[in-house]
Amino acid sequence: MKLQKWTVGLAAAGIVTLPSLMQAQQPNMVQTMAEGTTLTGYVDVAAQWNLGTGNINKPAYAFNSTATGLGAPVSKGDGFNLNVVDLVLDKALDETPWAAGYHVELGFGPDAGTLATDSSFGNAGDFAVRQAYVSLRTPLGNGIDWKIGVFDTIVGYESTSGPNNPNYTRSYGYTIEPTTHEGILGTYKICDSASVTLGVANTFGPVIGSRHPNKEDTKVFMAAMTLTAPKNWGWLADSSFTAGVINGFSSTVPNFGGAGAGNGNLTHVYAGMTLATPVTGLKAGFAVDYRHPHDTIVKDDSWVYGLYASYQATEKLSVHGRAEFVDDKAGLIVPAGSTINVFALTCTVQYDLWKNVLSRAEVRWDNAQNGQLYGGVAGLPTLRNSVMLAANVVYKF
Asked: What secondary structure, in 3-state letters, does 102-119 show?
């Protein structure tokens, strides 16, 4: 270590000491290890009004009710809501052949508790470890990117991150999909237009540390492929199609562990597309979710079909629509074994008035066909229709 002459003079006078100087000039190990790490996230708040009275029976889409620290269900209707505070520490993979990084995503607030990953910290009511994985690259062929730890599921048109979705409320497709897995996931980019993903996890999730109670070799296997239209395809450029399947153990299968129960296995199949159109600013999409429990008594399947449309009218103004049809015999959305189907329409207007702020207004109509699913003060529902108005504001940093 080279010291300036005046520095040595200060040390000789007893004003400073050489050990402290040497320590100060050593690289900070924490800073070196954290180099390239970014801190991002968002704060998601909303106001929601369910038209009419008697909202005890609400549409059963994800995050429409939340769980408090005491574990009691709380409606988001007719009031103001803190949805979630999301914090992300991320060190992305660079372009080197043996790149390494990590991703940690933590949620705070009612939606985090509803996600129910139940980490070793305990669900703690309003806290969840949403994702926490080490990312690695191995230079085989074009390179395989790995995630090892807890990661988002590989299927679905919508994300657990609300700001990434075209609408404020979640779809029924998202509602029946798995959310997170604990395991290992590898993605290989075949070319600019095609990639494949394969993975193995403990369960369908979302509980961190969950295992099959009796068969330690029972796991969940997943695979997906994404195709993207190349730039030279004219107005179809950047359109994408994804198909995926997840199969294996889930402790949430009805009747698991009981007399004559199922084997705890599920199969989830997904296909979805985002399609560019000749109209500038207009994109369309579709999604199909199929969920099949491998029960030894009753094999009740769930189907959700979704159509999407988004139009970027101006730099700040966009409009997003979604239509869904639910055929659910497994009791995820409607009472098990019923003949009731659900049709839902959602329209969202987004206007980015403030910097870093996503602001949107939404109207949603859920219709129970051939029966009543909504409303009522207590006990049985009395209405076939549920109409909801919402205003959503998200600050992203």
From this structure: EEEEEEECHHHHHHCCCC
Q: How far is CA 243 from CA 158, 195, 225, 253, in A?
A: 14, 11, 6, 23
30 pLDDT above the threshold of 50: no
Compute the mean pLDDT over every residue in the chain, rounded to the nearest whole number: 85
Residues 6+ apart with CB under 8 A from 146: 135, 136, 137, 138, 184, 185, 186, 187
pLDDT in the model for residue 294: 83
Token pair listed for 48:
């929601």
Helix (H, G, I), strand (E, B) or coil at 176: helix
CB neighbours of residue 19 within 10 Å:
9
Rounded CA separation 43/392 (Å):
11
H helices of the chain, in order, are 5-12, 18-25, 29-33, 110-115, 172-176
Q: Determine the average pLDDT of the residues in 319-323.
A: 98
Alpha carbons 270 and 242: distance in angstroms, whole number:
8
| Whole-number Å distance between alpha carbons of 322 and 364 | 9
- Strand 65-67 with 38-50, pairing: unpaired
On the question of a cis peptide bond just before residue 206, with omega within 30 degrees of 0, the verdict is yes
- Residue 238, both tokens: 């950047």
| Higher pLDDT, residue 395 or 58 | 395
Q: Kindly compute the dihedral angle of the four CA atoms of residues 51, 74, 287, 130, in this order, to the nearest 10 degrees.
A: 150
Kindly tell me if the per-residue pLDDT of 312 is higher than 80.
Answer: yes
Q: How far apart are CA 361 and CA 367, in angstroms?
A: 20
Distances in Å between the alpha carbon of 300 and those of 183, 244, 254, 297, 327? 28, 21, 10, 9, 10
Q: In this structure, which CATH number among 2.40.160.10, 3.40.50.720, 3.40.30.10, 3.40.190.10 belongs to the domain 42-396?
A: 2.40.160.10
Question: Rounded to whole angstroms, how far apart are CA atoms 294 and 145?
Answer: 32
Check residue 255 and report its DSSP letter: T
pLDDT tens digits, 242-268: 999 999 988 665 443 333 344 578 999
Domain ranges of the chain: 42-396
